[in-house]
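sry for the spam today, last one i promise. struct tokens for design, 157 residues
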């Protein structure tokens, strides 16, 4: 794929990524459509991005802003173990008097942490935890700090 000069995504990169997604998922499609769950980043909301999705039979499901920790599968059960495992590996390097993490040090440590934490079991748990597979609305609602109440009306005079 491509990268941007500042490391952030943009409309051009989003389209390139969508072409990549299309190429590598269409041969595994059961039926004519695929579902792509996205965040609300502006590059995913462009007319070109949405038109390309329609052209490629990709259905977009946009999760609400500031909810990825509840709804985005990788945030739910994969990134936390990855962060913890990587931190453990870096702490081990620090105990061995490594004071600077170079690219040469980072990449092997990250690869090891990734392989130990991004597992089939964690990925499946992430979809369960996000209430996606199997579909379970309570998996998300039970994590909200919201109390649903029926409003009380004062009697009319």
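last one done:
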């Amino acid at each position: 794929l491509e990268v941007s000069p500042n490391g952030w995504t943009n409309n051009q990169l989003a389209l390139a990524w969508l072409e990549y997604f299309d190429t590598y998922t269409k041969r595994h499609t059961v039926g004519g459509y695929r579902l792509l769950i996205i965040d609300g980043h502006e590059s995913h909301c462009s007319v070109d991005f949405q038109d390309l999705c329609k052209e490629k039979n990709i259905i977009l499901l946009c999760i609400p802003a500031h909810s990825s920790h509840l709804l985005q599968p990788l945030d739910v059960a994969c990134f936390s173990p990855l962060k913890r495992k990587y931190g453990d590996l870096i702490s081990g390097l620090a105990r061995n008097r490594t004071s600077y993490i170079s690219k040469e040090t980072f990449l092997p440590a990250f690869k090891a942490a990734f392989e130990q934490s991004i597992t089939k079991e964690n990925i499946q748990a992430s979809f369960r935890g996000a209430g996606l597979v199997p579909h379970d609305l309570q998996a998300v609602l039970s994590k909200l700090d919201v109390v649903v109440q029926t409003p009380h009306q004062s009697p009319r005079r």
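The beta strands are 34-38, 58-62. ok im logging off now
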